[in-house]
Amino acid sequence: MNKNFDGKTLILVFENGSDTKGNPLYSRKSIKNIRQDATEEEIYNVGISLASLFPNQLANVCIDEDYILVSA
Q1: Confidence class for position 72, pLDDT limits 50, 70, 90
Q2: Quick count: other Cβ atoms within 10 Å of Cβ 47?
Q3: CB-CB neighbours of 43 under 10 Å
């Protein structure tokens, strides 16, 4: 089994208020087509910079990597 890189996505998770029970609600913003060779630190720094453009409080910076599995 082999895996082939298919894409990387930066995901910004924002606090978006709370529900009727007081549990936090979150919204997500995704930025696709991140370079495969971008480091976690570079992606994090870009995420922090972009988060300042949004009105809600940033909760998390996430990375989603997709691979296609291919039988050998």
Answers
A1: confident
A2: 20
A3: 19
